[in-house]
């Protein structure tokens, strides 16, 4: 049992937490109950919150006042699925172009101060908006729910290999902190946290991990896959490691399998965004994701805006339930996900089976339709080109795909031709395949790596 940190001298048990810890513990207590509610009861809770949010947005935001009027929706009325779906989908360019009109003129004082939120701009121009102390509270609650779901020992050492500004947390030393962060650290005494800049070379990351021996490791899936392969080839293990956590990129089954093979632990993923915090957390018992319905209403819809059935892939729409500074109502995030059936664990929180990526990760076919590309099994490519250390596919036009590669030695004409044939066979279309050899493939914003990027407008 984790004992909270007490802030009253002379009282250690039962602990008397500080203000932020008390707020977090109160929310977490309620989340423990609501996760087991049936979906209809969960939506009833969301609808109550949406009614308050809609009334505030209509009163304080000129953008939403017009939007409700144009949709014929009374923002003070009871919210149903039908009334929600009458509201148009909020597109990214609309949010960017709305300026201050979309922001609330005034906030309830209890929501605290505004703070600026800015996305990385990985799909183009960045989004700039506002959050509040309340949105920060629910972000921290998401962090803590993930730790609690997965039974983490907060007294252990947390290691992170993530993006940091140039020159910060570089190898060989990295950076050290006394706490896991403001979420867990405000409630409980925790073990130390150590950080290494993801710009460090693989061998430097391995050396750092061997020195630090963390109990838990968090990084991007692409980096963990490269680390796992490196360790498998050299038979490097980390005896203290209990779990590996991922953020920021799409997780594949290959990534899960590699982590388990290399280090004998589970890979546990979560799905969040700068605009709204935690959207989904991997189930403690299964590899599906539970939507965080107490914080955000998530819809997965097809191209016509109709809710996807289990197994269908659609666009992710989010409505942030507690952001009264910049309300986001049916905002199209740019991601795609596969809707899921109710989970066998018994939680009523809705399910997505997997998060598939963003619009720019979809292949545009010659007839203009888009799909998530299947390039085939990595082992098939390795059998042809073992010299390839890293690769990335770029679609430049409806008929051209470039494969960028970092290699230990140049490929032969025969290897290039066999690779072309494999790519075309897997994609099912006679694309023109070109090759580019690089010393390194640069990561995207904040250190993220994407295996496939389409530069074609769908």
How would you summarize the topology of this molecule?
Blueprint (H helix, E strand, L loop, with lengths): L18 H16 L4 H22 L1 H10 L9 H6 L5 H6 L16 E5 L9 E5 H17 L8 E5 L12 E3 L4 H4 L7 E5 L4 H11 L3 E4 L1 H14 L8 E4 L6 H11 L2 E8 L3 E6 L6 E3 L4 E6 L11 E8 L10 E9 L11 E8 L4 E2 L5 E2 L6 H7 L3 E8 L4 E8 L5 H15 L4 E6 L14 E3 L4
Parallel strand pairs: 3-5, 3-6, 6-7, 7-8, 17-20, 18-19
Antiparallel strand pairs: 1-2, 4-5, 8-9, 9-10, 10-14, 11-12, 12-13, 13-14, 15-16, 17-18
Characterization of the model:
The structure is a single chain. By secondary structure, this protein is an alpha/beta fold. The protein has two domains: 15-152 and 242-357, Rossmann fold (3-Layer(aba) Sandwich); 363-454, GMP Synthetase, Chain A, domain 3 (2-Layer Sandwich), CATH 3.30.300. 30% of the residues lie in helices and 24% in strands. It has twelve helices and 20 strands. It has helices at 19-34, 39-60, 62-71, 81-86, 92-97, 133-149, 182-185, 202-212, 221-234, 253-263, 378-384, 413-427; strands at residues 114-118, 128-132, 158-162, 175-177, 193-197, 216-219, 243-246, 266-273, 277-282, 289-291, 296-301, 313-320, 331-339, 351-358, 363-364, 370-371, 388-395, 400-407, 432-437, 452-454. The strands form four sheets. The protein has a twelve-stranded mixed sheet, with helices on both faces. Helix 2 crosses helix 3 (62-71) and helix 8 (202-212) packs across helix 9. The longest helix has 22 residues, at 39-60. The protein is globular. The mean pLDDT is 93.
């Amino acid at each position: 049992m984790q004992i909270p940190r007490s802030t009253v001298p002379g009282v250690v048990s039962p602990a008397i937490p500080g203000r932020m810890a008390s707020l977090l513990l109160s929310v977490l207590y309620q989340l423990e109950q609501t996760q087991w509610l049936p979906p209809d009861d969960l939506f009833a809770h969301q609808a109550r919150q949406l009614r308050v949010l809609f009334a505030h947005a209509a009163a304080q935001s000129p953008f939403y006042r017009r939007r409700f009027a144009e949709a014929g929706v009374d923002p003070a009325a009871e919210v149903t699925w039908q009334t929600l779906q009458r509201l148009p989908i909020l597109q990214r360019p609309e949010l960017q172009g709305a300026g201050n009109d979309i922001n609330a003129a005034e906030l309830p004082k209890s929501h605290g101060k505004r703070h600026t939120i800015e996305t990385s701009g990985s799909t183009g121009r960045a989004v700039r908006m506002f959050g509040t102390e309340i949105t920060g509270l629910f972000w921290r609650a998401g962090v803590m729910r993930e730790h609690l779901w997965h039974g983490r020992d907060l007294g252990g050492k947390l290691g992170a290999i993530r993006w940091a500004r140039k020159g910060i947390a570089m190898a060989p030393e990295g950076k050290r902190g006394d706490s896991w962060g403001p979420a867990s650290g405000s409630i409980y005494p925790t073990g130390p946290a150590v950080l290494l800049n993801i710009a460090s070379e693989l061998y430097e990351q391995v050396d750092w991990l061997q020195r630090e021996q963390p109990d838990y490791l968090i990084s991007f899936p692409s980096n963990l896959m490269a680390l796992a392969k490196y360790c498998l080839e050299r038979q490097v293990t980390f005896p203290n490691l209990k779990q590996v956590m991922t953020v920021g990129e799409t997780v594949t089954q290959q990534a899960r399998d590699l982590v388990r093979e290399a280090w004998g632990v589970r890979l546990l993923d979560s799905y969040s965004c700068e605009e709204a915090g935690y959207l989904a957390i991997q189930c403690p018992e299964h590899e599906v994701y539970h939507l965080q319905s107490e914080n955000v209403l998530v819809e997965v819809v097809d191209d016509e805006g109709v809710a996807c059935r289990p197994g269908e892939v659609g666009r992710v729409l989010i409505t942030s339930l507690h952001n009264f500074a910049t309300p986001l109502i049916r905002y199209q995030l740019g991601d795609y996900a596969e809707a899921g059936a109710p989970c066998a664990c018994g939680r009523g929180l809705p399910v997505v089976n997997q998060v598939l990526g963003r619009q720019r990760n979809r292949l545009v076919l010659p007839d203009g339709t888009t799909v998530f590309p299947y390039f085939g099994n990595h082992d098939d490519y390795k059998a042809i080109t073992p010299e390839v250390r890293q690769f990335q596919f770029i679609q430049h036009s409806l008929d051209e795909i470039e494969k960028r590669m970092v290699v230990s030695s140049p490929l032969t004409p025969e290897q290039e031709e066999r690779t072309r044939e494999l790519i075309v066979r897997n994609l099912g279309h006679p694309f023109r395949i070109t090759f580019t050899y690089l010393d390194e493939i640069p990561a995207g914003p904040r250190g993220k790596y994407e295996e496939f990027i389409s530069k074609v407008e769908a």
